[in-house]
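Example 4.3 (complexes with small molecules)
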Amino acid sequence: MQTLDRLTVILGTGGTIAGTARTAGDGVGYTAAQLRVDDLLAAVPGLAGQPLEAHQVAQLDSKDMDGATWQRLAQAVDEHLRRPEVGGIVITHGTDTLEETAYFLHRVLAPEKPVVLTAAMRPATALAADGPQNLFDAVQVARAPGAAGVVVALAGRVHDATQVRKVHSYRVDAFESADGALVARVEEGAVRLLGRWPAGDALGLAHIARPVALWPRVDIVLNHAGADGRIVRALVAAGVDGIVAAGTGNGTLAAPLDAALREAEAAGARVLRSTRCDAGPVMNLPGQLPAAGALSPVKARIEMLLALLAS
Ligand SMILES: NC(=O)C[C@H](N)C(=O)O
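Answer. The structure with asparagine bound is encoded below.
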């Protein structure tokens, strides 16, 4: 049973939450000069005196997130969660690929203790930085009785790793859950549960232990007006192992793209149809390439990568 005085471990990975702005009015997230996770904690007076421990796992703009950093992060999360005195983990991350890291950790670790990813849309030195409040909220989520699984806490809302997407390039509340279903809200430091904490079956760290240079190659191809099969054929020639097609609507594909994907499948590549729409599932229909269900293209890519790692 979780008690309120258990330790929360904060793992820093970089992102705009750790970024410094060029000028006080720069609200876009210049991240070249990055603050360490201890500096981020020091900027949140409300966290003083709480049982926290901070470690720097990476220091990058999350557009540059990669498999090796995921391996290191999953390893660190697993190690800290095994410590009986640790009640939960907070990960500070960039917003750009946050939903991918959250989904990856969910599928690999499916932790019983809470793992809360948080971020900021504005740099730490912006006039009205959002990082300190998000970090404070994330710690409250990690310490909330009953909290579990991989979630994302940002702008007072708590999202399930499987549902969350970045939907806005600039707004402070840049994330949404598919169909609007939130796990919880954070109000004045209190966590109000609205849904369920995420749960699932963990694949385990051994599943991703292969050196990243030997991981299968999975790419995403977009359907659009005038799309043809040239990119797909180039990918097959380059030795791609899997292709996620971000289709239109319910995963529909222009005829030449569909034909090229079927050729890729016949040549041995795994193929999945997802949708470029912001929400909604892609249904499996007779005679069509396999569907990714409710997974967004980037999460379907992770799912395929993990499936191919098993083979
Ligand atoms: N707001 C942000 O965090 C954006 C930044 N480029 C990142 O993902 O690291």
